[in-house]
Each structure stands twice: as structure tokens, then as C-alpha cells.
Amino acid sequence: MVERLIPTALVEDNKFCPGCGHGIINRILAEVLDEMKLTDKAIGSMAVGCACLMVDTFGVDWIQSPHGRAAALATGIKRCRPENPVFTYQGDGDSMSIGFSETMYAALRNENITAILVNNGIFGMTGGQMAPTSLPGQKTVTSPMGRNTDLTGQPLNIINQMKDLNIGYLARGSVTSIKNINRVKKYIRNAFETQMSGGGYSMVEILSPCPTNWKMMPDKSLEHIDNTVTTYYPLGEFVKKGGDSNE
Amino acid sequence: MSKKDNTKSVLTLHPERCKGCRYCIPTCPKDAISISDRINQKGYKPVAVDMETCIGCGSCYTICPDYVFEIKEVQ
Amino acid sequence: MALKLMKGNDALAEAAVRAGCRFFGGYPITPQSEILEYLSKRMPEVGGHFVQSESELAGISMVHGAAAAGFRTMTSSSGPGFSLLQEGISYIASAELPAVIINVQRYGSGLGDIFQAQGDYFQAVKGGGHGDYRMIVYAPASIQENVDFTTLAFDKADEYRNPVLVLSDASIASMMEPVDLPEMHEHDPNKNPEAARGKGDGPFKRITSTMYYIEDFDTYVKKKYDTMAANEERWESIQVEDAELVLVAYGITSRICKEAVMLAREKGIKLGLIRPITLWPFPAKAFKALPDTVASFMTVELSPMPMIQEDVLLSLDARKPVHNFLAGMNIPEPIDIVEKAADCIKQTAKGACNG
């Protein structure tokens, strides 16, 4: 057993809704940065959306990006400051809808940055609108009868878009259990290790609950991810150029 | 949980941070966590922990989105 | 002083490098593409970074990131691409970061066409992007001024922590003239303690809209732009001392107007010229200091609708007639300007000219 202390980057209580997965993801990201001694050097490129709520509570240098442009900002930062760990923290609306182009091109250029993409299948901050990642039939405030894939297309699987690219690391995890949380923490660590060894673009997509906008109790939200969401978005490591981390 | 040294894992609870999502309750292997009756400053009924039952395993720390739990090593 | 013959876009790009610009992100669009091409070769030579971005949206965002990291940085575009830059410009202004933006104007709304024009005036000087911000806008009229004002733009961007725009056009971009280039300047990205470089032992930095952290932001931001407006007007006045009609034109058009003034004077027509060098702040002071002989004004604009006219009228408190010579997509001949001006002088004397 080891001490489990709140990591240093979490300087204030988070501002997320009850049961929101961002709180868990914030903590494991902060743990990885502390354990790798990167908290003092890290520069984050922050999405627009619920991610914005981290600006005062997660104590690393932040740059607020325009909606969707976090990967482009991160590119500018990383090219100028290649020694610093540079990461984006984005939701699925930001990174895969308005920012799909910026997200994909950062991967296509194999920018040596780490993308943390939190997929809760919905636009959270704006009140639960349909996202590219919303599941077929999913009821949202802009798909009140359920997502009709004939009209809106199939859910966007960003891993499938990226897995054949020349990039350093690609993984998808979830935060539904101790096992999955520990696994996704390892993915985040692998991603930063890829970056710090100059291994190119690394991305971890994290399936995360949004009980508020899913209109689901938190425990049911976790079950929904395990039982349904993961059938569209399978978990695992998809690209791993650098081999296993030492952890 | 026995250890090589004589330290013991002790839970520190920050109930004022709790938003009542209850992720920790089924996660606790000892069923040591319950919901209290009072309402905290955030407006939620925070969790309470039966310290006699708690083994300091840290599962609650891992699942909690709101940094309610910490595990500290004490002699 | 060794003069070098250079094309407008190339000279501008070299001036940026010599001002210490070490990051450029941008996207091809005629007639600014030579800036991109030049810097793709030149940036690596000086240890800088060049990224051909997937779009103007991404390009300006890369510039935003580089600026936040403390580096001197620039993007360039034209017309349709300049529209796409507005998002990032607003964010950069809001975060109070320095950056230099180049718009090499081309003709028309929508796709338009690639030849010279001045139709982006309103977008350049009245905001363009959303919210409450302004940009100093320099209007070079020669290749040397491309160099001088690009250099100055970097200094002013740092001074005010605000994006600065150089509003060129297809003519200035494509012409070749001899230029005197400044010495190479190295900019220290760590000079500003607010640059993103990791928090180190200190507090973490939040590079976002400064409105979140400044008390009485309304007053603060108004004062910022009022100070810029009060201190940064630049213009050139030519033979206004005894003029009856003063032409108002910037950039390439102002050069034609200079010739028109000379031509008019040979014919005994008393024309003068005010050439705004900054379009924002508009040089209102130039209009306050005119002699009583000046009875009217005529803007000469490479657009089918008047734009500068509005700012001239504001500068005059609308007390004198302001006519237009709207050249649209045709570069005007000096003689045509003189003839229209002479006509306006006559009509103003009769008190009857409106356009």
C-alpha cells in the first residue's frame, strides 16, 4: 500500500458536476505529471467546454484555445518550446467536431504533443447537445427522438481515424472502475513518456460519464459506458511505438 | 493490510468536497462508506466512512472524482 | 547602407525574421503566398519554426500558442483567409498577447479575385473579429515601408501586448523596389515572465481572456485602446498648406495620389494629400490641423464602395464635404483623379457636390 495523496497540480476543488468523469481524469493526469516530475514544466492547451473549468483548479501553465483549436495552439507552443511537455485537454465536441481538422492534422504531422481527449458523447457545457460521438439512438437536446444515423452519420471513432498514421502512441481507456482507471493512468503515462522521448504524437481517448446531460444517475452512467459505449469504442492500446512504460 | 514496516494506511476524509455521486460506495471492498444525513456547504449529502472497518486500501481515492479521500501512512 | 532589390512580400518576410520573429504558421493564398514560401526556407536558417497549417484557423492558433510561449510570431493571409483569421485575432487580443498579422488585400467579397484592392478596410480597422478590441493597422505604400512597418509592428505588438496588422495589397506585395533592411534582432522569449514555459517554482500561469483577472475590466480595456488611439496616429501630409481640396488615400493608392497632386499643381489646381499610415488609429489629428483654404476632400479607394470616407467624415465632425474617387478594380490614372478633383472643387464652390 502506498500513500494516496491529492497530487500537487490539483490546487482547488474541481468545478465539475457530481459524478463527472473529468474529476477522475484530472486527478490521474495530475498524478502522472507529479510522478514524472513534469508538473513544473507542463504547458496545457485548454479546450472550450467543460475543460475550461480547470483553468483555476489545475495548477499548470495553461493557454486557453479557441473552440477546437487546442492542437494547433499546442503545435505553436511545442515547436517553440520543445523541451516542455505540451498537452491538450479537450472534450469530444471540441476535439472531434469543431476541432476535427486541427486534431487530425496534429496527428498527421506527428507533432510531439500529448492529446487527452475526453469522450462523453455529448456537448456538456452547452447543455447536452448531440456530439459526433453520440451513439445511434442517443437522445440529446438536439436529437430529441434519438440520434438518427441516416441524417447525422455514424458515431465518430477517432482511434480508427488515427490508428494507421505514423504516430507515437494511441490508446483508449475509461474511468468506470478501479481497474480501468489504473489502466488509463498507465496510458496517460505512456503518452507522456512517448512525448518526452521524442516519440511523436500521443493521444489517449477516455470514455467518461456525463450523468447531468445523459440524465442518468452516476452509477448507471458507469454501467452504460461498460455495457454500451465500449461496444462502439473498444478499449485498449492501438499504437505503441515506444514499448511498455516502466511502471 | 500488513506491511514490512510498522506504518499503517489511514484514510483522511474531506467531506466538504463531496458532491454525493456515490461512486465510492460500491467500490469499497469493506462496505465502509455510507451517505450521511447532513448537507455539506456545496449542498450535497456527503459520504461518511466507518473508520473501524476501513482498511485504507485507497479504492475510494481512485474512483472519487472530487478528491474527497486521501490515504496517509502513519506509524 | 546597402540597398537590396526585393519583392514586397519577400521584403516583408525578411523584415519579420530580422525583427526576431521565430514562428510562422500560415496557409497559401494569392497574393500573399510568397511570404509563406520565403519563410519556409528562411525560418530554419535562423533557428525559427515554419508550419504550413491546414487552414488559416489553425495558422492563427499556432501563432496564438507561440505568442503565449513568449516568441515573436506572425501569420499572413489575404481576403478570404483574413476572414478566417478573425477568430484567432480576437482571442489573441483578449489574452493580451503580441502577434503580427499580415493581410495582403485582394479584390472582392466571397472568393473575389487575386488583384489589388482595398476592400478589407472596414474588417481591418473596425474590428473584424468578435468583441471589444482594436488593432493598430499599418498601411505601407512602398517596399521599404513593408519593411519598416513590419519591424515597427513587432515592437508595438510587444509594447501594447496586442495583435498588430500590416495591411498590404497585391500591388505592394508584387512590386520590386530597393530596400534598406535592418540589422538582425534576436528576441528573448523568456524576457516576459508571463510567457508559458511551465510554472517552475512559481504560480501557474493562465493565459486566457484577461477580463477574468482584471478588476474593472471595462475601464481597463477602454483605457488601453484609448491610449493606443491617442499615441499611435501616423500620417503623411503633402502640400496641404494651401490646398483647396485634400485627397485622402492609403497604401498603393496614395502613391498615385502623390503623382496626382504634382500633376494638379502643374495645372494650377491646389490639391493636397493626407496619407493615413495608421488606419487604426485613424489620423484624425491630420484633419484638425488643416488651413481654412481646404474646402473639401476626396477619398481615393480601390473599392467599389466608400470606406475611408466614413473615418474622414468622423475626423472632420462631418463639417466639410467628402467626395470619393472609387476606382474599384481598376488602378486609377493620376489625370483621372485630378479631373474629378477639379470638378469637385468647382461643385463645392457652388455648394452642390455629393459624391
Provide a descriptive summary of the structure in words:
The complex is a heterotrimer of chains A (247), B (75) and C (355). With 247 residues, chain A is of the alpha/beta class. Chain A has 9 helices and 9 strands. Chain A has helices at residues 21-35, 70-80, 92-98, 100-108, 149-152, 158-162, 178-196, 211-214, 218-232; strands spanning 43-46, 61-64, 86-91, 114-119, 122-123, 129-130, 169-174, 202-207, 236-240. In chain A, helix 3 crosses helix 4. By secondary structure, chain B is of the alpha+beta class. Chain B has one domain (17-74): Alpha-Beta Plaits (2-Layer Sandwich). Chain B has helices at 24-27, 59-63; strands at 8-13, 33-35, 47-49, 69-74. In chain B, strands 1-4 form a two-stranded antiparallel sheet. In chain B, strands 2-3 form a two-stranded antiparallel sheet. The radius of gyration of chain B is 13 Å and the shape is globular. Chain C is α/β, with parallel strands linked by helices and 355 residues long. Chain C has 2 domains: 4-231, Rossmann fold; 236-350, Rossmann fold, CATH 3.40.50. In chain C, helix 9 (251-266) crosses helix 12. Chain C contains 12 helices and 15 strands. The chains are: A alpha/beta (247), B alpha+beta (75), C alpha/beta (355).
Strand content of chain C: 15-25%
Count of β-strands of chain C: 15
Give me the Rg of chain C, rounded. Answer: 21 Å
- Adjacency order of strands in the biggest sheet of chain B: 1-4
CATH superfamily of the largest domain in chain C: Thiamin diphosphate (ThDP)-binding fold, Pyr/PP domains
| Structural class designation of chain B | alpha+beta
CATH architecture of chain B: 2-Layer Sandwich
Could you name the ranges of chain C where pLDDT drops below 50 across 5 or more consecutive residues? none
Q: Class of the largest domain in chain C in CATH?
A: Alpha Beta
**Percent in strands of chain B:** 15-25%
- Which protein chains make the most extensive interface, counting residues with beta carbons within 8 Å of the other chain's beta carbons? A-C, 34 and 41 residues
What would you call the quaternary organization?
heterotrimer
Walk across the major sheet of chain C and give the strand order: 3-2-4-5-7-6-13
- What's the helix count of chain C? 12
Query: How many structural domains does the protein architecture of chain C include?
Result: 2
- Would you give the CATH topology of chain B? Alpha-Beta Plaits
Number of helices of chain B: 2
| Overall radius of gyration of chain B | 13 Å
Number of distinct beta strands of chain B:
4
Q: Helicity level of chain C, as a percent range? A: 40-55%
